[in-house]
Model the fold of this input.
Amino acid sequence: MADYIVVASGTSTTQVVRMAEKLKDRLNARGVKQIKIEGAPQGDWVVMDAGDVVVHLFRPEVREFYNIEQMWSMTPVKDGQEDGTQSA
Done:
């Protein structure tokens, strides 16, 4: 896992890809060299693994569809249910 997860959006596939390229350049300049990137050819959802930090870059429609913020949220458990569902 990572210590930090960053989620951001670009307005187009081109912008998402350019954001990933620029971030990689800036991280490289700061000494982070082993950056893994997935999804750049499509540009809808780019994931960058920079070790302790994982960055998700989305087009807005894709970000809304996957709702990754909800997936990684720390939703409190209700009514003693481990899976977060409520009992009737």
Remarks:
- The domain at 4-71 is CATH 3.30.460.10 (Beta Polymerase; domain 2).
- The longest strand covers residues 4-9.
- Residues 5 and 72 are 9 Å apart (CA to CA).
